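Running co-folding for 4'-deoxy-4'-aminopyridoxal-5'-phosphate.
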Amino acid sequence: MFKIQGFFAERAKHHNASDIKEAFHLAEKPSVISFAGGFPGPHTFPREIVKKLLEKVVSERGESSLQYAPTEGVSELRKLLAREMTREGVAADASDILITSGSQQGLDLLCKAFIDPGDVVLVEIPSYMGALGAMDNYEADKVGIPLDGEGICVDLLETTLQRLQREGRKPKLLYLVTNFSNPAGVTLSWERRKKVIELAQKYDFLILEDNPYGAINFLEKIPPHIKTLDQEGRVIYLGSFSKSFMPGIKIGWLCAHSAIIDKLTMVKQGTDLCTNSLGQYLALYFMKEGYLQEHIGCLTDIYRKKRDTMLQAMHRYFPAEVSWTEPRGGFFTFVTLPAGINAKTMLTKAIQFDVAYVPGNCFFVNGQGHNTLRLAYSQVELEKIEEGIQRLARVISEEMKG
Ligand code: PMP
């Protein structure tokens, strides 16, 4: 091929083939037990219900289920989601909802609408890689704040805000995955949610509250959304059907002040015109016919068992120097290895031992996290989890011996 490199925009030049992609390629061999992919378990998809609802949607809605939809989304779905948000404590009507092609598109539209090159964006360390990628596409200056078992460390957030103020740098956005986060598997406490909104008011920034895992909740009441505390329209909430129903329809939504929704609708017109209609009607029927709640009940049973199996195996087999988060929902646990062990280089050995994970450094924006890794229990078959953890324990023990 002729020299294409010079044609790429500056912002696209950092998208290079990575070692991790190469390693994942190897992890595709059938003998590998992979804890890498954060996908839903393939056996969780409600195939029979989807078949029935597809037929119903096409016969009852005819053309409109097959035609382009309004850019802001099918109005019945927007109304139903507004009602659901209201039930969850966020007073909303349909004009506050934008249907998106997955919440990933919500992140892209938000970055497109709000980020100029060099704008400061605050993120948790570690943070969701897909959001970091969306921010990179618009050349954001990402500033990281560590999290602990209660979510983002608000005292460190405050000192970072003070430092930025002294440097004359004003952050525009704070991005948070509030429940059972990807990759850390932690939930932001109620006290900290209150502090975060207080800081947003004081230092004048917007909050992106990303919550794709909230429905996958194993045992407890999670704190209300940050958006419930939002008096000024500073919080933009992102929801998704990808984990609670299926990613095959790629339907998400954004709940925000209607002035933000109007702007994002215009931005979306130049992005994909509209979200797919058939998927929107499927999500609508899945919700309004009462399947969603029942399905979420089944999902939480399945994922709870997988989580329990993984954590028990980690307690049994991992060396005492290794620590990890104990998620109370969602798909992930985040592992910290002894300092000096590099999870990225260890991956090659892990794949030789037929086990895979995601090295944690790619979730960090401060060049750290080399001794961390993310394990997803969501996709692996329950029966293979213990064996996979045993293999990984062997790899870690060998690595520790040097
Ligand atoms: N946010 C987070 C934290 C995620 O983990 C994901 C998917 N892995 C997304 C957003 C995007 O989800 P979707 O586009 O499928 O709704």
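Result summary
Residues 38, 102-104, 128, 130, 177, 182, 210, 212, 240, 242, 247, 250, 252 surround 4'-deoxy-4'-aminopyridoxal-5'-phosphate (CB under 6 Å).
The mean pLDDT is 95.
Job closed.
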